[in-house]
Amino acid sequence: MEKLKKQLQQEGYLVMLSKDGVLIAGQEDGYSDILKCKMMKNTFGVEIRNSLIIIDYAIGQIPVEKEFKTIKDLLTFVRQVFPI
């Protein structure tokens, strides 16, 4: 999971690890002085289940889940769907 986090950060995405072990990634959208944190837009979640890399995101209000076998395949998809 750490390797995946580093690779997403190298691509330019803001990445956080949630307490349930899911990576939350997205494009940086400024800083909130009220919340004292960086804001994100176009976010997606990434987790590893049964040796597959699972990404989940929403199109409008419809949740979508895709599976990938390699980090390379995941990064190719992320670059196309969530370009920076």
Mind sketching the topology for me?
Layout: H1 2-11, E1 14-17, E2 23-32, E3 37-49, E4 52-59, E5 62-68, H2 71-81
**Mean pLDDT figure:** 92
Low-confidence stretches: none
Strand content: over 45%
Portion in helices: 25-40%
Q: Count of helices?
A: 2
What does the radius of gyration come to?
Answer: 13 Å
Oligomer: single chain
Strand order of the largest sheet: 1-2-3-4-5
H and E string: HEEEEEH
In whole angstroms, how far apart are the ends? 22 Å
Query: What is the structural class?
Result: alpha+beta
The largest β sheet comes out as:
5 strands, antiparallel
Principal-axes geometry comes out as globular
Q: Give a count of the beta strands, DSSP E runs of length 2 or more.
A: 5
Q: What report would you give on this structure?
A:
By secondary structure, the protein is an alpha+beta fold. The chain is built from two helices and five strands; from the N terminus they run αβββββα. Strand 3 (37-49) and strand 4 form a beta hairpin.
Characterize this entry briefly.
This protein has 84 residues and is of the alpha+beta class. Helix content is 25%, strand content 50%. It has two helices and five strands; from the N terminus they run αβββββα.
List the keywords.
alpha+beta; 5 strands; 5-stranded antiparallel beta sheet
